[in-house]
Amino acid sequence: MSKKQYAFYPGCSSQAKASADNFLRSIDVVCQKLDVQLNEIPDWNCCGASIGYGEGGELPRLALSARNLALAETNFAGQDMVSVCPACWLASRETAERLHENNSLLAECNEALKEAGLTFKGEAKARHFVEVLIEDIGWDQMKSQVVKPLDGLKFAGYVGCQTNRPFGIAGESFENPLYLDKMVETVGAEAVKYDQKVTCCGGALAFSEPDKAQKQIRDIVESAYDHGADMIVTPCQLCQANVEIYQSEINKKQGTKFNMPVVYYSQLMTIAYGGTAQQAGLDGQLIKAEKLEKIAGK
Amino acid sequence: MTTANQSAGAKYKNSFLKEVEANVEDGQWVKMCMQCGVCAGSCPLGPAWEHSPQKIFMMIRAGKREEVLKSDSMWMCTSCYNCIVRCPRKLPITHIMHGLANYAHRLGLAPQGQPTREIAKLFWDNLVKTGRVNELKFSLAMYFKDGFGQGVKNAMAMQSVGLGLVKAKRLNPMEILGGHSCKDKSGIQKMIAKAREIEDRRKGLA
Amino acid sequence: MNTTSAPATPKHAAYICSGCGIGDTLDVAGLEKVAKTEGKMAVIKTHPFLCNAEGVQMIRDDIANDGVTHVCIAACSRRAKAEAFQFDGIALSRANLREGVIWVVAEGSDHDEVRQEMAEDYVRMGCAEVKKMTAPAGNVKETSSKKILVVGGGMSGMTAALAAADAGYEVVLVEKTGALGGFASNLYKRVPFNGPYAEPQPTGVEEMAAKVSGNGKIKVYLNSTVAETAGAPGRFAVKIAAESGSVTEELCGAVVQATGFTTYPLDKLPELGGGQANVVDQAGLEALAKAANGGAIKRADGKEVKSVVFVQCAGQRGTGGNGSGSHLEYCSGHCCATSIKQAMYFKGQNPDIDTVVMYSDLRVPGMGEDFYRSAQQKGVIFTKAKVTGVKGGDSCQVEFKDLILDEEVSTDADLVVLATGQVPNAGVNLDEWTATVTAAESGDEAAKGKKTELQKISVLNLNYRQGPDMPQFKYGFADSHFICFPYETRRTGIYAAGPTRRPMDMFQATEDAIGAAMKAIQAVENVEKGRAAHPRAWDLSFPKARLEGCTQCKRCTVECPFGAIDEDEKRFPLFNEERCRRCGTCMGACPVRVISFENYSCDTVGMQIKAVNVPDEFEEKPRILILACENDAYPALDMAGVQRMTYSAFVRAIPVRCLGSVNTIWITDALNSGYDGVMMMGCKKGDDYQCHFVKGSEMAYYRMSKIDDTLKQLGLEPERVQTHEIAITDNARVVKLINEYVEQLNEIGPSPMKGFG
Prior knowledge:
heterotrimer; A: alpha/beta; four-stranded parallel beta sheet; 14 helices; 8 strands; about 10% strand; B: mainly alpha; Fumarate Reductase Iron-sulfur Protein, Chain B, domain 2; about 55% helix; disordered N terminus
């Protein structure tokens, strides 16, 4: 079977030694196992993230994403542009759709892009890596690579916001998306039912409004504990960072004893596919995912 | 500025609504709100909003220009998009809130020192410099946004987390010396400047 | 009246079905024995599958070859297999052994005895009933008119006339004014009826009027009113009086009353600026828009309107609307869409005109939502507000509470439009009429004058004993059975359509008109076949009275929900069968029991009650009589059986046509016979009634409220007679009620009347 090829937009947090560095390592393993080739877009730039609006406004933000799409089009013609970061995906897809629907906006955008020597034709399609897994690879293929089923582990599948809204994964409901649970089950673990699956972690407001964001995070972690989860699993870098990093803060302030590991779906897959803890990026956990490491060490 | 400085005296007339339609991202949707309040009930930070999106839409129609633009409500948006997917009228509420915040910020009416406004600016400045976000510099900038003394306190408070991230190789202390960057920094900066220029021209914010 | 053609020598037969588990659960031989020795049936046969072709043929053969005239089927409920067990010209009773016994009595041999007793009682009852029945022969009228009279030439009336004419019926259309079109002809444009529901549309009234005028089946009387309507469905004698004074008589089969509405008077709304300059109602705005004809809309003083505020619910919806709350209690339904349309008049002409609609709830059902959205797209501003005051003048002031922002504010406008409500043109209020007539008859001169005034506002001028118009429903709208059968009224063969029936918009009025026209056609067709109207449309029976026993108490004429009974010259009741719906309320009302139907009478039920074997007090087997309305309560009991719910085997249920048909003699007979209790089950009464005959269950409650005295005389506790409102979905509830009642009666103890019956 020939490798499936995609133009790859890693995004700022997935760079080496950035906050989701470990995530990308596990994505690499998953791609190898599933015959996927991600071709990094040369000189990609930041998408503006969800907080870019404050200073950036509309057109500068669109231009940032249009530049990435234009680079993808130019360098990897015919390939979909894939992101592993929900914010990157959201910004790119929104830009692609808006410019597709609005010709005058496209013209304005290209006027700006010209300054960077580029033109966006509107061909590249912005997709999320989860879409690639589900739609292009398929559940059977994902399951076929499992050599170490994660028997007995219970995960709270935390989908969060931007992988789920406003676009989401085709066929899923906004209120109760099921694909992440299915991924958990595909690698042989159990997906617990809990009520904070799509709750917002506070996003960028974890920096600016820490108390409000930490209330969100507390609800999520507490519910995962209450429903018997060993770990939280998520597809989102910001969810992962916020929910993992601030547990110690919440413990300090509110006397809780949270110590719930928060991992990525790709880390689960890496371990289930026979990868090492190092390959899965488990060394990047602030709260060690000991139960996963144990299975990896078997 | 075409209409930006018009008085808001003509209450329940359409002047501010027209201004929003012309100058705010997705502002043409404001008139389509049917006042059901689902957005207000769906916002994770709902209780923190002085005026819910539902009310903000009504205030725009009622010509309450200053009250809307000076409000810190829009800055409470976490970009969770819950309001968007639930709105029965399909208003892009998140975008409108972002648009209003940006418009108020550009007019200089947004609340001074509003923390989200501050970090939004820091974030953007950070990304414009190299084309990519430098997480360390961004974090330090945030801690020191309220001055050096407060910055040291903030940084100390989060020190264990920071060290943890460094140990986990998820925060690189060497980033302070430069770190990740796009090659075509100047092209990106020119592009952003141009985009802003076009948008300002279109909105009369030159 | 036709007489029955039943043979002189009746022959009674009982057929017992042992299918559906009846034979496995019951002692069928025992049932046969009961039918023979106590039921005195001449023919008794058991069949393992009575409703199949062979079983039915067996009965048909007996009728054809053996002279059987009366048939008692002991099988399933009368509500099942009604088509299989239908034998023309044969009196038929049904003993309900399946839904009524084997499906509801608890399983197991412990219950064998009471189950068998229950089944045997039902066989006794079926035999007793059929012996008192005669096969109804119908009341076929050879010379009935099928012409439809339509009163009112507006949108509803014209639509009804065209619908009836299209279906092949002659129509007489009477219009009070000099032109067809009604309220709709005053409109500039109408709300859209079809997709994309985005723009106001031409009314189409002129085209419709031309179609009516040009239709060979429709005879139009302009400048005319109905001076008198006499008779009954199939034979309404209608006097049509022209303004000129000439009177024409038309014989009609049925009537559609489409007399529309009047707008609520503006001058009654001073608190909202009614009567002041530049404050108009929606009709007033239509006039301005019509005058502008697509140009700038100008006020009465000629000034071009640059800003307009629409005040929704003006003087409507009680305290929920805008205004003082002492006006109309109801929502007129159309006004939200109408204001949206009118706001578009302004936006269509000049998008810069400020148009604000102040509403508390925007009610635009169905595709009206698209129309609302379209107005929002055009920039019409919708403000959720309670308007507290309007001042007219050169610059109108609207004071209001913004319900979203929770603040008291005001705004100015060149013009204010009040969305006032629809007041039905439904003629005379019959309660007022009856009181006036009673006073006039006792010599009150003022009442005599008032009677004349009332006659002037009458629409139909019916010469019915109960008054000149249709009974009015809530808020003065013409009658309708709004829950179950919206087009049915309490004047058989007369159907209300459009805003005279309930508040509605133009599209609803046209649909309503078509519905009413279809009902009118159904009515004339039923009359021709001698059949009743809904809900007993198959019924060929009709009430007969033994006038020699009548005391002229007038209860039947007063209590008939359909005004079917007039009085003859000697003040005896005069039954108009074509107006009768066969509910039997007259039969229930009659204190001397002279009114009966061929297949339903004081005897058919009374003999069933007496046929039940009531054990003595030492057996500890109470007997409870259930008189259940056949429309809702009896189906609920059946459904309890279908769902295998169990209830006490001590009850004996008899279906009645309506609780209104229950004659108190049945209750006293039952109590005298030693029954321990009586449960009456009927439909919901009151303003939101579900009684299929509108007033029947209410009459029953009224009568039963007076039964306490009778009970006292008998030395019985008041708990021994109970009345319940049962909906057709109350299957679980009836079971609970029965079982609780049995327990209650156990506590009270056996009836002291046992053994005296």
